[in-house]
């Protein structure tokens, strides 16, 4: 079975363009849209507390979506809170844990983080007088694990991305997680670029909190994200948002929170989004994570080989076992945006810029990159077309 051809039938846009911008957002298969349409057209109602049958049906499907999501990452049902996206999940994590820190406590992260897994910790450190320490690493994105062990000693919290959206490097999250646990540190994982592309299990990763978005790897809709909260932190993690749906009892001067996960979801949630996310997860599971990972590895291998042959500088680990389906490169002296515009003229969609990872760009001494990123519906034929356009572009500059 040729996976791309089977999946491409469900995604009309793949017939019109070569879509290599999956790190920003993936394309959506018809079954996901159909699941959301069914909610909006056949049982549109608010969830929880409603007695009428439409509300009962909506509640059932919404909570089934939570169950599917939990199982997908090895979590318990009540450990899954739905949010808007990864950024919101990580911000909520920092805000909800604010009360456990005291002045001088240490937070450890890496120089490769997306801004969404850096800025919340920077702000928390400034606000509370905490120490923010950065694990050393090289220009390919490889972490210095000896330095990690040293920095993590005495840490209160460790936050790390699973896969770099800028360099495509797959970090040793399991090993870092073990180090954090040995120190009694809270371990936070940004899994925005790994969920839906490779196996992610919160227990194997030793994650206490883990965040991802529905619209990336899982091929779900925008506006739905996930925050995994390990059960032992339910009484430690203070919900940053409270109100409708989060309480068990209220009087004029006090309130009592309800049990998780509802205590973490104030107001009406993105019901259609959660249902769409579950449909995306089921779609991913039907294909098989192992097949997705193998397909992306083939695409990365051919892309990096082709760019090397063209003498086009590309970034990220040379050990392709550590390289996820993200390839960043430049075509000097052109600006990344100019290269992306040329590729767009040939119906090839890529991302260009600093990718919300300015410290990475500063570390490499560049102002940005062109980024081609893949999913299972991309093919070797598309990569060859891309490399053909790149060859013509490079020739025109020499």
Can you characterise this structure?
- It is a single chain.
- The strands form four sheets. The protein has a seven-stranded mixed beta sheet with strand order 2-8-7-6-5-3-4, with helices on both faces. A four-stranded antiparallel beta sheet has the order 11-12-15-14, covered by helices on one side. Strands 1-13 form a two-stranded parallel ribbon.
- 38% of the residues lie in helices and 14% in strands.
- The chain has two domains: 3-20 and 288-396, Aspartate Aminotransferase, domain 1; 31-285, Type I PLP-dependent aspartate aminotransferase-like (Major domain) (Aspartate Aminotransferase, domain 2, 3-Layer(aba) Sandwich).
- It has twelve helices and 15 strands.
- With 398 residues, it is an alpha/beta fold.
- The two termini are 41 Å apart.
- The chain has helices at residues 3-8, 30-42, 53-72, 86-96, 119-128, 145-152, 173-182, 271-287, 289-309, 336-345, 358-364, 380-396, and strands at residues 18-19, 80-83, 106-109, 131-134, 157-161, 186-190, 209-213, 225-229, 247-250, 255-257, 314-315, 326-329, 348-349, 351-353, 369-373.
How do the strands and helices of this protein lay out in sequence?
Blueprint: H1 3-8, E1 18-19, H2 30-42, H3 53-72, E2 80-83, H4 86-96, E3 106-109, H5 119-128, E4 131-134, H6 145-152, E5 157-161, H7 173-182, E6 186-190, E7 209-213, E8 225-229, E9 247-250, E10 255-257, H8 271-287, H9 289-309, E11 314-315, E12 326-329, H10 336-345, E13 348-349, E14 351-353, H11 358-364, E15 369-373, H12 380-396
Parallel strand pairs: 1-13, 3-4, 3-5, 5-6, 6-7
Antiparallel strand pairs: 2-8, 7-8, 9-10, 11-12, 12-15, 14-15
Helix pairs in contact: 2-8, 3-8, 6-7, 9-12
Pfam families: Aminotran_5
Domain Aminotransferase class V: 18-386
Cofactor: pyridoxal 5'-phosphate
């Amino acid at each position: 079975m040729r996976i791309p051809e089977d999946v491409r039938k469900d995604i009309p846009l793949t017939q019109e363009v070569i879509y290599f911008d999956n790190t920003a957002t993936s394309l959506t298969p018809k079954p996901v849209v159909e699941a959301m349409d069914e909610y909006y057209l056949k049982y549109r109602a608010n969830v929880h507390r409603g007695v009428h049958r439409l509300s009962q049906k909506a509640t059932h499907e919404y909570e089934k979506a939570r169950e599917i999501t939990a199982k997908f990452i090895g979590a318990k049902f009540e450990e899954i809170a739905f949010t808007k996206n990864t950024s919101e999940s990580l911000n909520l994590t920092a805000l909800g844990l604010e009360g456990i820190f005291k002045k001088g406590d240490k937070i450890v992260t890496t120089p490769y983080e997306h801004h969404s897994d850096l800025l919340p910790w920077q702000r928390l450190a400034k606000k509370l007088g905490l120490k923010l320490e950065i694990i050393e690493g090289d220009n390919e994105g490889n972490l210095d694990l000896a330095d990690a062990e040293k920095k993590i000693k005495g840490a209160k919290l460790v936050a790390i991305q699973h896969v770099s959206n800028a360099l495509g490097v797959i970090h040793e999250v399991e090993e870092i997680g073990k180090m954090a646990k040995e120190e009694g540190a809270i371990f936070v994982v940004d899994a925005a670029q790994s969920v839906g592309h490779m196996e992610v299990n919160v227990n194997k990763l030793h994650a206490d909190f883990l965040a991802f978005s529905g619209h990336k790897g899982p091929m779900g809709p925008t506006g739905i994200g996930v925050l995994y909260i390990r059960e032992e932190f339910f009484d430690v993690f203070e919900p940053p948002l409270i109100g409708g749906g989060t309480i068990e009892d209220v009087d004029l001067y006090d309130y009592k929170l309800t049990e998780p996960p509802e205590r973490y979801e104030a107001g009406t949630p993105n019901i259609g989004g959660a249902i769409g996310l579950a449909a995306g997860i089921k779609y991913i599971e039907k294909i098989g994570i192992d097949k997705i990972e193998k397909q992306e590895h083939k695409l990365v291998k051919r892309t990096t080989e082709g760019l090397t042959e063209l003498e086009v500088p590309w970034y990220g680990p040379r050990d392709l076992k550590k390289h996820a389906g993200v390839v960043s490169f430049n075509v000097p002296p052109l600006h990344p945006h100019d290269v992306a515009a040329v590729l767009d003229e040939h119906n090839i969609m890529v991302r260009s810029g600093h990718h919300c990872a300015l410290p990475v760009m500063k570390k490499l001494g560049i102002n940005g990159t062109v980024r081609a990123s893949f999913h299972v519906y991309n093919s070797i034929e598309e990569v060859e077309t891309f490399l053909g356009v790149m060859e013509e572009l490079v020739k025109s500059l020499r």
